[in-house]
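Reading a protein record of the kind used here takes only a little practice. The integers have meaning only within a learned vocabulary of local backbone shapes. With that in mind, consider the following protein and its fold in token form:
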Amino acid sequence: MLRIVVQDTPFSKWHTSGMGEPFFKNTQVIQFVKYCLVGGFNVLMNAVILNTLIFTTGIQEGPMLTFFILITFSIVVTQSFFLNVFWTFRESAHAERRSQYVRFIAVSGTSALVSAALFHALVVMLGAPFGIHKIIWANIALLCTVLVSLCGNFVGYKLFVFRAPGVMSEK
């Protein structure tokens, strides 16, 4: 078999992550892709639960929508923990699941408070812009909170919750 190897060309690093590993084999990239897939599932669950609450109660505006976001958070965060612990951040220490869950809730809770404040500001204080239905606006606000949570949660989970054994260990 004839194998041609091209090295040190401007194009030779395109297929790598810059750390010498192929981009698709880089564990950080794979981990982030898994995190995004779990997050996508969370967004879907969040939207289904929020819209179910909106349609079953008939409440389309006001402070109750902020309460609905907190309900969806409490449901989604628990299933998210299990997906992240057993799939996304699998290499984290297995012996400390209880403390991981507490840290997960702390990181997620902080993110949820920021997201709820943003959602409240967009939906309750600002309100739907002219021509946009209130339910559509609530879903747009929900997507805005997802973008804010995406980065903050990933960094928090990676550094404080699902760290590899021996990384930033408490003494």
